[in-house]
Queue: 4 jobs
Job 1
Amino acid sequence: MMRRKLAVWATVSSAWFALMILPFAACTTVEPLHADCETPCGLLMERQPFEGWSCGDLIAAEARAVEVLDRATRGAAVPDARLQHSHACDAWAQVVVMPRAEEIWPDGARNVAGLAHCDRAPQLIEVTGRNRPTAGALAHELAHIAQGCWAGPVVDEGEDVAHANWKRAGVRAALAAFGG
Ligand SMILES: [Zn+2]
């Protein structure tokens, strides 16, 4: 009798444990522990251990990215509304920006200036801290986040799937204004 009770309790408690753990397991891939900067659109900056970017720098970079992406994409051959002001700003809410002191090697084969992770919760932008926040690398990753890392099914000539509509939608033209 006692054994059976224990077995039932064990089953109930393991099910409860699984229920408790699963949501956390799905949401804690990246946990900002030191985010101490929030921009008007809601970007959060995780600065540990790299502290080379100020909160004011990130706020200025976000404002410039909003303005330049909005202007360039409105005048584009095939505008993508996701890149325009309020849509982009909404998409950036609670996205963690993590400037890295070290280089970023997504696949071990080449290093990159930035990387957008749309599949994480919270979404994350890793970007090399050797560039200024107002340089093109951050704006590039912000454009990916605004599109939910899905640029569309038709790939412009000279682009890849990740940047499929970036010529048509004016993103390349916008980013050219930033420089490295
Ligand atoms: Zn890209």
Note: Residues 1-28 have pLDDT under 50 and may be disordered.
Job 2
Amino acid sequence: MHATEHLFHFRGKPKGAIVPKITAGEIEDTVIFFRKYFRRLSVRNLSLCCPHCKEAATPSTFSTGRYRLADEELFCDRCGETSLVGYWRLEGVQLGQQSYAEPLTPARA
Ligand SMILES: [Zn+2]
């Protein structure tokens, strides 16, 4: 008789107590979480420009919106309009604006 069999002989048959049960839904939720997480990381350095006023996002707007996904909304400090972040990024690519992710170089006198 094996040592563990001897143990279970007294305690009864283990009922899924040793290996925690993970449901398919929990695995799916975890996969979705990490997929969104890496998507947020991959877009964080793209520049953001308001599709309404065509101005680059202010540093505070950029820090609010940089980790948002394309289908999430972002409010513009300059014109007061709210647009989807996907349009902000598209505008940023089209206008070629500098991203606020890099530290702004101080103006030289
Ligand atoms: Zn705007």
Note: The CA atoms of residues 49 and 90 lie 8 Å apart.
Job 3
Amino acid sequence: MKQGKNNQNYDIPETMKAWVLDDPEQLRLTEKPVPEPGPAEILVRVDAVAVCGTDLEILSYGLPAIIEGGSPFNKNYTPGHEYMGTVVKLGRGVDDFQIGDRVTAEVHAGCGRCERCREGMYTSCSNYGMNYGDKDKGHRANGFTTDGAFAEYAVNNVNTLIHVPDEMSDEEATLVVTAGTAMYGLDVMGGLIAGKSIAVTGPGPIGLMGVAMAKSLGAQPVILTGTRNSRLDMGKKLGADQVINVREENPVDKILELTKGKGVHYVLECSGASNALNEAAQMTNRGGRICLAAFPHEPVPVDLANLVRNNIYVYGIRGEGQSATHRAMAFMEQKRFDATIIHTHTFPFEDVPTALKYAKERIEDAIKVVVKIT
Ligand SMILES: [Zn+2]
Ligand SMILES: [Zn+2]
């Protein structure tokens, strides 16, 4: 029994309840040993975990989860990667956090030794998935290459944890990775400079957080495009100056009209639509920048001549690198925007399959579905 800073006691049992992935779409509730934190690791009691679109991908197709160098099916693997909780045990040498601290976790610890990790691009670690047997290079990505948080406890590298302010709810704290991903997209484009214009295409969780983040950084105007008016209304609440329903208006024409024919400086593409890059290039001004945060499942034709002739830069991002989650948390802590707007549903731990179903089928217009464990 350990005493925490809040004089709370944390009895750590030997086993815990955890959901594991058997065949595709087959999650099963089982018992697992509670993991031990190694050097530079912390055992976190999971208090809340949000469902991400990538969880749904993993359940159906396996990738991008990679367990022991291959498919994650039938390996006793636990998904879930957007989580927060309470520090209950510290690994050797950890003094950055105390027992009882509330923390939220970003996904990728990286290996810390490859060229990309050393550059801060740990979401693009060259040793991705190398954490087993004689290929153990210390890489971790929660719920992707190691066990995730649809479980009562999870172990995490100290470099991925962020303190949660007392006044922030558990549910809101699970949204930091989403906001951090949007922040990373803006970083990768060279950083958003106040007064520049941006279009965010696709009002999913990342797109909506992209709107909030861009507005907080001083973008003007912030334009959001999408197909659902309910989502576009949320975008307005999060800071969109203009919203365009692409079923009612041509987004390229409308954006050119709003920018006096010039187009926007930045496009953050979050729709994954097959023609999204071509449209983004048409709504970007000459010399402008596009960041792809979503992608279509099939290869798509791209008008390269338009990109080259107009000196348009195209970036892709994977996840939430360069400590963007820490900066996202700073914005959320300062209440620069209300991330809780995108949290629509909460389910208990026993109902993880229902939570996933709500997210997948967007039942009752679900956006961010959170599983509350304690
Ligand atoms: Zn995610
Ligand atoms: Zn690495």
Note: The mean pLDDT is 95.
Job 4
Amino acid sequence: MDLGAGDGGYVLHRARTEPATFAIAIDASPDGLASGAWRAKRARLRNVSFLAEGVEHLPPQLSGIADEVTVHFPWGSLLRGLVDGSRSVVRPIADLLKPGAELRVLMSAVERDGVGEVTPNVVISRSGAYADLGLDLVGVTWASPVMVRETHSAWAKRLGLRRPVVFVRYSRRSSRRGLISDGTSSDLHGIQSTRKRPS
Ligand SMILES: C[S@@+](CC[C@H](N)C(=O)[O-])C[C@H]1O[C@@H](n2cnc3c(N)ncnc32)[C@H](O)[C@@H]1O
């Protein structure tokens, strides 16, 4: 599942290159999704679907079915919720994932986006809020241009790849065991972080 999918370019790529994968594009706005749906129809892709809904209001039928959830270049409430680790955004995302499945986020924010600059250290500092909701931080690093290109993101093309982009991976815990009383995970030892900013 790709959340904040825009025109669905990433799910179309995954559906085309992985016939055994069923890919779902979800976005609060139907504008971009409609063009993706037309492209899927023209390409006769039957392993892709489009849902116009905000992450805060996902249907319960999607709970626990995702092998992977991606979010590429979020903005608005999706970006704010992911940066803050807010319950209204992170919880419904965590609910989508099967135990052990991963949430993979590429995001870029600078001061004028209203959430402060997003760096690997900022992500690590918010990891307790995610752990509280069943998502353990696996790794955080600056994304390379190749990683950004692989998202097939129309938005990244517009940004021109000049802004620093953070790549974060979280894993869905199968139970809430492993949390300690202040809400932080007791198992953060495996976090890999590349803190050096790309030149
Ligand atoms: C900058 S666009 C990125 C689109 C696409 N992922 C890409 O990389 O080209 C951010 C998208 O996030 C969506 N979005 C913002 N808040 C959202 C929310 N709460 N739930 C779902 N989608 C949201 C917007 O509608 C927009 O399409």
Note: The pocket of S-adenosylmethionine is lined by residues 3-6, 27-29, 32, 54-56, 72-78, 151, 153-156 (CB under 6 Å).
